Amino acid sequence: MDKNNCIKYMEKFFKLNTDILWLKNPDFLMQSRIFYYRSNFKGINDIKIATAKSKNISDDIVFDIYFIRAEFETLFSGYFKIVPVTSAAETMFEGVSKLCTDLGEYFYYVYQNSEFLKIYFATGSVENALEHHNRKKTKEGAFDFNKFKEDMYLEISSYSQEELREMVLNRNLTKKYVSNFIKLNSKCSEYVKMFLINILSEVYIRNICIINNAYNVKNYILVEAQNAKVNSYPKVCVYDVIEKAVKENALVLVKFNYDFKTGG
């Protein structure tokens, strides 16, 4: 299924409602920059712009879409935050980013990465979607974040204080490191751009620790021009890791791999 057909299916199964008067026909193709540059949004830091509900009321899939006013160089001019309201919606967005700038690109990304949404589109049954989602989780097994965290802390504890000062970069300069990465990797994929928005957001920035890529540690998230993955668990979604880190007030190491061939 391509992006256009994916959006048609979103429109087939979901309806969007809004309380914003000028937004008469909200759709699944909205882009955050449209809201960012509107004069009547200048003084608003965040606002709910729409609520999406499954057309079949009994399916009870409900999620809100918020606009967040923020800007970062060429990466974004405002962004959207997806907030699941019901348990079915939480399942639909499990393990994927909940921040984006382009709803069309975003829901196509969700479709590609959500077993729940794939089955829901194919069968129109929330029960089937939940069953397949749970079956896949059981087959793959649960990600043990505590083991990941313990291995990470054990690994960095083996370094001397001087080595740690060189390895762990200044957390107050996270935005600067992201800026440098963007400048040197001008052809970053949309997936990577989405991940960068996440680590710059107020939700995750306090739990992200960027490290010097000269150090050969194992337990970290590797960010390259085309992909972001958990180095020691390549099949585990990066959002499973950073969301667990937020819940447990833990740190996650992030390493940038600069690709000078794609730089601007």
Element layout with pairings:
Layout: H1 3-13, E1 14-17, H2 32-36, E2 46-54, E3 62-72, E4 76-84, H3 87-92, E5 99-100, H4 103-113, H5 115-123, H6 126-140, H7 145-157, H8 161-167, H9 174-184, H10 190-200, E6 208-211, E7 221-223, E8 228-230, H11 238-247, E9 252-256
Parallel strand pairs: 6-9, 7-9
Antiparallel strand pairs: 1-2, 2-3, 3-4, 4-5, 7-8
Query: Outline, from the CA principal axes?
Result: globular
Mean pLDDT: 91
Rg on CA atoms, Å: 19 Å
Count of extended strands: 9
Low-pLDDT runs of 5+ residues are none
**What is the strand content?**
15-25%
How would you write the strand order of the largest sheet? 1-2-3-4-5
The string of secondary-structure elements, in order, is: HEHEEEHEHHHHHHHEEEHE
Number of alpha- plus pi-helical segments: 11
* Distance N to C terminus: 32 Å
Question: Would you mind describing this structure in some detail?
Answer:
By secondary structure, the chain is α+β, with helices and mostly antiparallel strands. The protein has two domains: 3-140, no CATH class; 145-256, no CATH class. It is 41% helix and 19% strand. It has eleven helices and nine strands. It has helices at residues 3-13, 32-36, 87-92, 103-113, 115-123, 126-140, 145-157, 161-167, 174-184, 190-200, 238-247, and strands at 14-17, 46-54, 62-72, 76-84, 99-100, 208-211, 221-223, 228-230, 252-256. The protein has a five-stranded antiparallel β-sheet with strand order 1-2-3-4-5. Strands 6-9-7-8 form a four-stranded mixed β-sheet. β3 (62-72) and β4 form a beta hairpin. It is globular. The two termini are 32 Å apart. The model has no long low-confidence stretch (mean pLDDT 91).
